[in-house]
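Q: A reviewer asked whether we had any structural model of the full assembly, not just the individual parts. We don't, so I'm hoping you can provide one. Inputs are below.
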Amino acid sequence: MRFLQLLATVGVVCLALAPPPSASVSAFFLPNISSIPPSLLPNVSSPAWNAFRNFSGCHAGERRDGLANLKKYFRYFGYIPETPSNFTDDFDDALASAIKTYQHNFNLEPTGQLDDATLTQLVRPRCGNPDIVNGSTAMNSGKAESLSATHFHAVGHYTFFPGTPRWPDGKSDLTYAFLPANQLPDDAKAVFSRAFQRWAAVTPLTFTATDSYTAADIKIGFFSGDHGDGEPFDGVLGTLAHAFSPPSGRFHLDGDENWVATGDVTTSSLSSAVDLESVAVHEIGHLLGLGHSSVEESIMYPTITSRTKKVDLATDDVQGIQVLYGGNPNSNGSSSTPSTSQERETSDGGEPRAPGPRWAGRAIVAVGLGMLLL
Ligand SMILES: [Zn+2]
Ligand SMILES: [Zn+2]
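A: Here is a predicted structure for the entire assembly that you could use as a starting point for your response.
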């Protein structure tokens, strides 16, 4: 509860400060904002992609204002090839094809239409890393895990970056550090430590915090908007974070999100509250070499609704990471952890981006572009 008072005071002060452009953000985390008066909370009205909901029922051959923005969304996440021409507001074949592939990746009926189920998925907050790199998608390819007719035939959907980059064999003890300018509180740092341990438990890898940001293998930083890597963050919700493939180690989080570092995110009064550990576990998967998976229970599924906690590795995640690194030699034979059923308290509410960093009940994360820069 002591943090609530911090929010009421520090939070307001932060909102009055203009964030430095293209720069890291300072931040504060509040674990529980459920009892904070709404008047002290940031506005919650316009999540990044909410306008897409207006396209419900829009179909091929139609022209609708703003469809060009939807095409940009699909291009950003790899569903429309890079093209020099400007996008039009026409519902053309390229858009229909992108929608179909997206529906396939997210286990939706591949109608090629902007039906409500598809739009609901499209506007969910998500990782900024693309689902498709270099035009080929493996997200829902259904790799067979066992060819034995007498055994359970599991289907994996984990993916890797093009070329299957991984940390080299001689580099299994990795260090990580936080951007000093962020001045993260210990509670927030502890969240990352827990997230790393989830991956360490099922691999031979270890993760150790270090104070040397420049020397660390993995560099964690919260940024606002354009932060110099060509993948600007977009304010509240939308893209939350992005991470680069091995051995880059760059892990960026959107400093404008309402990050929850401690406390029960599912009961937050702020509809745009995002669980920091959930996003951290996902992004670390990228840092180690995993791409997105179409298995909704998996950590590497691209979207996460706000006010949702999802931190346990699913079988799909464990199988994928162990293809890259093998299992944990210190574990007693168990090669997987059970996936947990997810609480999916959907809330697509968001807020226009606030001028300053807020970590109250907001911790942050943006993941994103690593893959695009390969
Ligand atoms: Zn991702
Ligand atoms: Zn970045």
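A: Points you may want to mention in the reply: The chain has two domains: 2-46+126-373, 50-122. Residues 266 and 307 are 5 Å apart (CA to CA).
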